[in-house]
Design a protein that fits this description.
- The protein is of the alpha/beta class.
- The protein is 40% helix and 16% strand.
- It has a single domain, classed as Rossmann fold (3-Layer(aba) Sandwich).
- It has a six-stranded parallel β-sheet, with helices on both faces.
- 47% of the residues are buried.
- It comes from Serratia rhizosphaerae.
- It is an enzyme of class 1 (oxidoreductase).
- One of its GO terms (molecular function) is dTDP-4-dehydrorhamnose reductase activity.
Length: 288
């Protein structure tokens, strides 16, 4: 299979390349190679490479910055995916588009299914939802994979931030009233590969971690594992704080657990995020 990958330098893009099945050919692109906001460039790239599938791992993900950077967020999260869908349709290729738990408002108390009503709280979530809609309108057979709380050995993420802070501080205040499921980017990559190998039916799929936690719970798990692996000499004290104690420009959904029943029914297990965390920490240790 020939796959055109966007966002190749990000967490998911890197993990996707690591897990590429034998015999698959990938053209790994990032913004410096392919500007997905330019339709003519996208069409030319697709016509040249003639992929069987396009995996869109590119996104504007700076949640707080998006509140002031609405135009750029919309260009990358809406116009870009629409351009990829148009090019995929023209070329007869499949499109996998990655989306987010931020399309929901977080007011639920049970895991969100793919058919639950969306209601983004901020610019980031709204542009991601608009991107989903644009993709589905152009190419209904597209696979839209929503995920959440992504971490990996690559780039910047919550795990790396917690490790950095833990080395300098004896105690940390971490938000305890937002709940969701951490997800290892390597598992997201594998889920996408599995969906493509199965030639799965188009539509929205939820994929996230197998255990729901708060950010403070997640932090405690990171510190415990990191201490066991001797990445940290001490485990910092975690003080549970509220969202109100830590105001941010963009409002976050307080509850964003995604139900993975649909993708589980296709034989794809949810992300065993604690195993993923252990793998990531070992990788970080080996690369110090």
């Amino acid at each position: 299979m020939k796959v055109l990958l966007t966002g190749a330098k990000g967490q998911l893009g890197n993990c996707f390349q690591d897990r590429l099945p034998a015999g698959w050919q990938v053209w790994a692109t990032d913004a410096d190679v392919l500007d997905i906001t330019d339709l003519e460039k996208v069409k030319a790239a697709v016509a040249e490479f003639q992929p069987d599938a396009i995996v869109n791992a590119a996104a504007y993900t700076a949640v707080d910055k998006a509140e002031q950077d609405r135009e750029l967020a919309a260009l990358i999260n809406v116009v870009g995916p629409k351009n990829l869908a148009l090019a995929a349709k023209e070329a007869g290729a499949r499109l996998v588009h990655v989306s987010t738990d931020y399309v929901f408002d977080g007011k639920a108390s049970v895991a969100y299914s793919e058919t639950d009503a969306t209601n983004p709280l901020g610019v980031y979530g709204q542009t991601k939802l608009d991107g989903e809609i644009a993709v589905a309108e152009v190419l209904p057979a597209s696979l839209i994979v929503r995920t959440a709380w992504v971490f990996s050995e690559y780039g910047n993420n919550f795990v790396k931030t917690m490790l950095r802070l833990a080395k300098d501080r004896d105690s940390l205040g971490i938000v305890a009233d937002q709940r969701g499921c951490p997800t290892y980017a390597g598992d997201i990559a594998q889920a996408i590969i599995d969906l493509l190998q199965q030639n799965a039916e188009g539509g929205v799929y939820h994929f996230c971690g197998d255990k729901e936690v708060s950010w403070s719970d997640f932090a405690k798990s990171i510190f415990t594992h990191a201490h066991q692996l001797q990445l940290l000499s001490k485990v910092p004290q975690v003080t549970e704080i509220t969202t109100a104690d830590y105001p941010t420009p963009a409002e976050r959904p307080q509850y964003s657990t995604l139900s993975c029943r649909k993708i589980n029914a296709a034989g794809i297990a949810s992300s065993a995020w604690e195993e993923g965390l252990h793998k990531v920490l070992i990788d970080i240790k080996n690369n110090q």
